[in-house]
Amino acid sequence: MFVLKLIFRNALRHKLRTFLTILGLALAVMAFGLIRTFITAWYAGAEASAPDRLVTRSAVSIIFTLPLSYKEQIEKIEGVKDVTYALWFGGIYVDPKNFFAQFGVDHNTFFQVFPEYLVPPGQMEAFAGERKAVIVGRKLADRFGWKIGDHLTLIGTIYPGDWDFLIRGIYTGKEPSTDESSFFFRWDYVDETMRETMPGRAGQVGWYALRIDNPNRAAEILQKIDTRFDNSLAETLTETEKAFQMSFIQMSGTIIAGLQVISGLIIGVILLVLANTMAMSARERIPEYAFLKTIGFRPFHLIGLIGGESLFIAGLGGAIGLILLFLVSKPISLAISNFFPVFKIETITIILAICAAFLVGIVSALFPIARAVRMRIVDGLRVVE
Amino acid sequence: MPETLVKLSNVTKSYYRDSLEIPVLTDIDLEISAGEFLALMGPSGSGKTTLLNLLAGIDRPTSGEVIVAGENIAKLNEGALAKWRSRHIGLVFQFYNLIPVLTAYENVELPLLLTDLSKKERRKHVETALSIVGLGDRMDHYPRQLSGGQEQRVAIARAIVSDPTLILADEPTGDLDKHSAEEIMTLLSRLNSEFKKTIIVVTHDPRAAEKAHIIRQLDKGELN
User: CB atoms < 10 A from the CB of A134, how many?
Assistant: First the structure.
């Protein structure tokens, strides 16, 4: 009890110094948590991938399309349950900065292959019954204030022209990690328009997504698919959905690696901040530690006092940092929802932040503890405060 | 015939700077009886504080025997020495060495925290010690709220609270004005006469030394 009281009072002996140290720790823990959350958000798509889903795309590049006729051939391959297809539209809503993902999808099969997008039955029927119908994610609808029945126009970039749409459904995610910011419209709307204006681009899809009966057979099935289209005009590359998502993430690999380095550096910075505070405090208290030794205090008492103070400051800074992290994550999540649909603080991030704070608390105390424990009493008493 | 409480035989103490030996105490023989009040005097660098540190068991002689309260403390290991100090030694320093974040009461209570005394018993001891030094009404004051003389009185209360065998004071008046210094020496004298405490004071102030029964001079590490 006395030791706790002394730890607390020692920590507050230089209030401004302690306050600034705790503030520095809190901001660093918050920054660490935010960076970790950014990295997690980057991987959210890949983490949400279904193990029984494969994606078939052009072997040359994702930007090249595949013929619609491949669908029937893929369906015939043993082990394939359902096949759907989609294309990337890349339209502009009012202003280019209003970015969101838009996909032309096969309205008959898409939501069977992606059951994590939950659409009320009535809205699904309305989507199937109207060529210009669109189903949007809940977050996207909230972002632009859309509701069912609203008309909107996208300016095509890959597919030129003004494209009118009618919102017929709003989907929600089955899991908290499911993206709720996409825009799904009917592929045949694009296809029929292309057939009229640019016939050479009709009958093409961006990629196929398929469900297989057994995830353990994924390697065998994807090889069969790619072998089937070997030496064709549009050779395919089939991979698991996770690998497909990761291929996009790897395009940003350097940025992610940079963020990971920065998160490590932040831990280093907070370590130095606290280590400096603890070293200053311990240096000032050398005569006190020497006196405590003269009256019989043992090294473990000093370890408790110095280590306890360091852990107290680190723990408080870490706790405030986590509170700040939760406070700022909501507005940040809203601000970047078009780029990171899933921006959620993971439990592992909280655990890592807590561990980092306590690790910093322990490591920062090591040098002052070693100094106080090794110090000869006569040397310590000779130091004048 | 009073018992011998302190006995130093052929004690030498040297420090080493790189390979250079610097003798501080040379061949010291000293006997102090229980209940004595002794002043060790001498110029700066004469080895007064070093001798006091040896008696307190916070430093070890290079050679010779230091027997205090029947124990050859030069032979005790660090753990045993720490326990021995807590039982037998009360230390008073020139700069008080109070913990600034603790009240007078808490500072005086410090040495008792390592004993088996209950909280109630500790309170009784602390209150007694503080009332002996005349600070019964300042128990809740922090060191910064006390004058230099009062701080030193708290330090003396802390030195006597565990009823040690020997009180060692290193320049206890060195940081005080004349009036406060007089008060502190009177208090130490009273502890000796009234409470029969054995006291050794290191000082270079002749006025402070006047209160002692015996005055020994140290010069260049030799006791005269």
Answer: 25
ipTM above 0.85, yes or no: yes
> Which of B58, B89, B75 shows the shortest CA–CA distance to B50?
B58
- Whether B93 and chain A come into contact, CB under 8 Å, resolves to yes
Segments making up each domain of chain A, as ranges: 2-45+253-382, 60-234
Predicted TM-score (pTM) of the model is 0.74
Q: Residue type for A284, please?
A: E
Cβ contacts of A346 within 8 Å, gap of 6 or more: A36, A37, A40
B26 CB burial (10 A radius; 0-12, 13-18, 19+):
middle
> How many other CB atoms sit within 10 Å of the CB of residue A207?
21
| Range in A1-10, A329-338, B137-146 the model is least confident about | A329-338
Q: pLDDT tens-digit profile of A179-233?
A: 898 999 999 999 999 999 999 899 999 999 999 999 999 999 999 999 999 988 8
**Is the Cβ–Cβ distance between B52 and B8 less than 8 Å?**
no
Per-residue pLDDT at A46: 73
Please check whether residue A9 touches B, CB under 8 A: yes
Q: Do B82 and A6 touch (CB under 8 A)?
A: no
Domains belonging to chain B, first-starting first, are: 36-57+78-219 (3.40.50.300)
For chain B, the straight-line distance linking the first and the last C-alpha, in angstroms and rounded, comes to: 24
Any B CB within 8 A of A2 CB: yes
- CB contacts under 8 A, B 35-74 vs A, are 53, 56, 58-59
Q: Do B53 and A291 touch (CB under 8 A)?
A: no
Determine the residue of chain B that is closest to A1 in CA distance.
B113
Instruction: Give residues with Cβ within 8 angstroms of A20, minimum separation 6.
Output: none
CA angle A241, A245, A247 (to 5 degrees): 115
- Residue A342 near residue A179 (C-beta atoms within 8 A): yes
| pLDDT confidence of residue B160 | 94
How far is residue B30's CA from residue B200's CA, in Å, rounded to a whole number? 12
The SS3 of residue A353 is helix
What pLDDT is attached to residue B2? 66
B122-133 confidence digits (pLDDT tens): 999 999 999 999
